[in-house]
Amino acid sequence: MKHIVVFASGDGSNFAALARYFESGRHGVTIDLLICDHQDAYVLTRAADFGIPSLTIDYHEFATKAAAEAYVLAQLPPCDLLVLAGFMRIVGPTLLAAFPDQIVNLHPALLPSFPGRNGIQDAYAYGVKVTGVTVHYVDAGIDSGRIIAQEPVRIQPEMSLAELVTAIHAVEHDLLPKTVADLLTKERIA
Ligand code: GAR
User: Fold this and answer.
1) Atom 6, ligand 1: which residue's CA is nearest?
2) CA distances from 10 to 31, 38, 44, 78, 85 (A)
3) Is the model's pTM score more than 0.85?
4) CATH code for the structural domain at 2-185
5) Which of 26, 99, 118, 186 is the most exposed place for a label (fewest CB within 10 A)?
6) Residue 107 among the catalytic residues
7) Ligand 1 pocket: which residues have CB below 6 Å?
8) How far, in Å, is the centroid of ligand 1 from the Cα of 13?
9) 122-177: per-residue pLDDT in tens?
């Protein structure tokens, strides 16, 4: 059995997709903990509904990101992978050094296009005809780590932004759990 910890900041629909996919250790993976950086985030309710323990960390209570991450590290159970699923913070050197090539992030665009906080909106506003979803390793940059998996989403004529958001999320909910399972249970992608 492989063990993961999920980091999320908000609604947590991707956390729920992971929790469903890996429920009761299905696919050889179990979610041992949710780490959330907002005490009122809906993802905390979702974790409770799935019976998955959660920990809320108020980064503002720490003098530095390094101090906050040192605290996070001290709370982490032994695990094989950290999965950022809608976690809206840049990971610092403390966590990166502790988990080399063991932190993955979900991004709602086809990197290296449209990195940052608003990947869906930025792609829509630019007028691209194809956008999509990326799962990548986390490095010191912003959405710049090695790409593990991508899935395109075509922006149809007349498609509204809301419809694109729905389409992107549907692809995310499928791609992220499968990619995590592949990473942990098959040969590492070189
Ligand atoms: C997802 O679309 C994820 O790709 C995005 O936040 C959303 C979280 O949704 N992440 C980023 O933009 C990271 N740069 P969720 O809370 O419903 O899972």
Assistant:
1) 86
2) 18, 7, 9, 25, 9
3) yes
4) 3.40.50.170
5) 186
6) yes
7) 8, 10-14, 85-86, 106-108, 117, 119, 172
8) 8
9) 999 999 999 999 999 999 999 999 999 999 999 999 999 999 999 999 999 999 99
